[in-house]
């Protein structure tokens, strides 16, 4: 094992891993337009590219969970800690790389995954068809077994993409408002299975909520980046360089994180956002 010197580590280009949540229709997919089209790959799980049909970047359209695992293996490379029979192992990578344009993937700096909500549904559908999702005694469907397998698969997939060290990876998801047993309202990511929703914030560097905010009679859309915040939105800033509210522009947001400079703009400085 090689020791990486501080000078080398600080020079290396590190990617940002972010979870971006927002209610349906707020314009999460449209934020793709704020990223550099030449170096961004659109991971289009929702087949919802109508909002960004004028965007000139590249896209992939996985339709199954196996497609999602294949792309994760190609994007992040093999994991040497895994056994040959496990997804994302060297053997798995060799198998999928044999018929893929691995060199072509090297041009991308950002992967925009829209959405983790749909990825979770594909994963759960796959999990329901596995032997673990059936009772050994009766052969009947075992929902508990399916959810257990789904949670492990999703976390392995997220961890695989997290280890794409040089890449920015953005997981887009729907945000729901729910009430607990005491009638208290809170905002939670819409992801199949509670395990993934609980552990995702610990996997990514940034948790960001895209929402419409009202201030002094003016409504505008902003990225909520820190927690706690007055609205109880999911948020986390591991970089320590973001304000509570940031302009809805992912390119500028990532540049700010990497530059280390703070922007003390007032909330009223946000222009009206045309991303619908």
How does this structure look, described?
This protein has one domain: P-loop containing nucleotide triphosphate hydrolases (Rossmann fold), CATH 3.40.50. With 276 residues, it is α/β, with parallel strands linked by helices. The mean pLDDT is 89. Strand 5 and strand 6 form a beta hairpin. The N and C termini lie far apart (49 Å). The chain contains eight helices and ten strands. Strands 1, 2, 3, 4, 5, 6, 7, 8, 9 and 10 form a ten-stranded mixed beta sheet that branches. Helix 2 runs parallel beside helix 6. It is 30% helix and 21% strand.
Name the overall outline: globular
What is the element string, with H for helices and E for strands?
HEEEHHHEHHEEHEEEEH
Average pLDDT figure: 89
CATH architecture: 3-Layer(aba) Sandwich
Largest sheet: 10 strands, mixed
Radius of gyration: 20 Å
* Unreliable spans: none
Tally of alpha and pi helices: 8
What's the number of domains?
1
Q: How far apart, in Å, are the first and last alpha carbons?
A: 49 Å
Percent of residues in helices comes to 25-40%
Oligomer: single chain
């Amino acid at each position: 094992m090689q020791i990486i010197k501080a000078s080398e580590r600080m020079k290396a280009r590190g990617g940002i891993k972010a979870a971006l949540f927002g209610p349906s229709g707020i314009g999460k997919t449209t934020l793709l337009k704020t990223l550099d089209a030449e170096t961004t790959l659109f991971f289009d799980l929702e087949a919802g590219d109508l909002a960004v049909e004028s965007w000139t970047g590249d896209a992939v359209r996985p339709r199954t969970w196996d497609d999602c695992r294949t792309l994760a293996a190609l994007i992040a490379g093999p994991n040497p800690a895994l056994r040959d029979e496990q997804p994302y192992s060297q053997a798995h990578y060799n198998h999928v790389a044999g018929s893929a344009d691995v060199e072509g993937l090297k041009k991308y700096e950002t992967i925009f995954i829209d959405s983790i909500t749909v990825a979770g549904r594909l994963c759960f559908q796959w999990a329901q068809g596995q032997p673990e999702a059936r009772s050994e005694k009766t052969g009947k469907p075992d929902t508990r077994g399916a959810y257990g397998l789904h949670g492990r698969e999703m976390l392995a997939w997220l961890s695989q993409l997290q280890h794409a060290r040089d890449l920015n990876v953005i997981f887009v998801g729907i945000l729901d408002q729910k009430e607990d047993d005491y009638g208290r309202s809170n905002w939670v990511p819409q992801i199949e299975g509670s395990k993934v929703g609980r552990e995702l914030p610990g996997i990514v560097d940034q948790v960001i909520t895209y929402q419409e905010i009202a201030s002094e009679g003016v409504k505008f859309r902003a990225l909520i980046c820190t927690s706690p915040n007055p609205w109880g939105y999911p948020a986390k800033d591991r970089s320590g360089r973001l304000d509570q509210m940031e302009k809805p522009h992912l390119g500028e947001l990532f540049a700010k994180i990497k530059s280390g400079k703070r922007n003390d703009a007032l909330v009223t400085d946000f222009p009206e956002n045309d991303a619908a």
